[in-house]
Input
Amino acid sequence: MSSIFKPTEIQGVSFQSICQEFGTPVYVYDGEKITNQVKSIQSAFGEIPLKIKYATKALSNINILKLIKKAGAGIDAVSIEEVRLGMMAGFQTDEIMYTPSGVSFEEIEEAVELGVMVNLDSIPLMRQFGEKYGSSVPACIRINPHILAGGNLKISTGHKASKFGISISLLDEILTVIKEKDLNIVGLHIHTGSDILDAEIFLKGANVLFEAAQNFPNLKFIDCGGGFKVAYKAGDPSTDIQEVGEKVSAAFRSFCDRYGRQLELWLEPGKFLVSESGFLLVKANVVKASSEITFVGVDTGLNHLIRPMMYDAYHDVYALNDPEGESEQYNVVGYICETDTIAAERKLGKVSAGDILVIKNAGAYGFSMASNYNSRLRPAEVLVWNGKAQLIRKREEFEDLIKNQVVLDL
Ligand SMILES: *Cc1c(COP(=O)(O)O)cnc(C)c1O
Output
C-alpha cells in the first residue's frame, strides 16, 4: 500500500520550506517533470515528424508555457486569451493551434489576424470562414469521430452526442462546403476525451482521420488530440505512451504512404504533461470528529481544486510530517460552505491542526479551474526549476477580489 510516490521535496527544495516562504495554500510545480513528460512523448513516437501542442487549458501560467516551449513543443489554445498567453510566453503564432468551441466569429477573425491556425468546429463556421477568407487562410477541421472514450461522460468529447467537432457522418456536406467556399483545409483534428487508457482507442480515432484524409488533397498535418491517462493512485493504470507511440506512428507511416505524401502528426496532451508535476500544499485548520467520521478541514476547497467534486476525481493526499502513516481514517474536506470533499475515507498518519497536507496530481485542471467562490482568494503558484523555488503567481489579495466591482452610491 505504501509503494506510491509521496515526495516531501522537489529537486532538493523541501515542501516545508516552500510553505514557510510562500504560505498555504500553494500550488507547486516541478518544472523538470514537465519537460521530461514532453521528452517521453517525443521519444515514444520516434522518427515521424511529430508536433506536440500542449493543451494550455490544463495549466496556463506563462512560466509553464515557457518551459513547454523550451522542451520543443507548441500549444493548443481554446480561447483567444490562451492564444495571447502563448504569445506572451514567446510562441510564434505558427506554433499555436486555436481550437475553440462555438465562439463568436469576431474571435475567429481576431485569431486569423494574429496568424494562428484555426480549427473549425461546425459547418456554419466553415461557411462563414470560407465566405470571408476563401482559400487565402489555411484552416483545420475538427471531426467528431463518434467514439465514446474518456474517464467520465463530462470529459468525453468525441461521441455522437457531444457538442464538439463536425460529425464524421457529415463528411459529404463538409466536402461540399469546402468546394463551394474554396476552403484550404490543411489539417484534420480529433480530440475524443480525457483519461483515455488504451492504445487501441487512440488508434481507432487516428484511423477515422486517416480514412477521411483521402478526401482532402491539401493536408499538412493530422492532429490526434490529447487525452492520455495518468495514474492518480496506487494501482491506477495509465496510458502506456510507448505503446501508443509505436502503434500510432506505425499506422501513421503507412497512412502517409497511402496518402502519397509525408504529413506531420500533431498531438495535444494536457494532463499528461502537467498533472504529476503539481502539488497543492494545504494546512489543516481543524480536526473534527463526528459520530462516524473524523474530518480534517483544510485551508482550501473546491474553489481551488474542483476536480474531486466536479468529476469525482481521486487525488492522493498525505501528511507532510508522516507521508507513509496510515493509523487514522479521515475525510479531508474544504472550507467552502457547500459539501466539498477533497478525499473521503483516507488512511493517514495522525493529523493535528496546523499540519501540512499534500494533495497530489494537482498540476492539471487545478489552478486553471480555480475560482473566487465564497469570495475566497486564489492561491499562489510556485515553480521549482534548476533546484530553485520561485513565485510564478502572487497569492490574491482582497483588492483583487473587488477591483472590477463598481460600487454604486445606493
Ligand atoms: C482539453 C483538450 C486537450 C487536452 O486533454 P487532456 O485530457 O488534458 O490531455 C486536447 N485538445 C483539446 C482540443 C482540448 O480541448
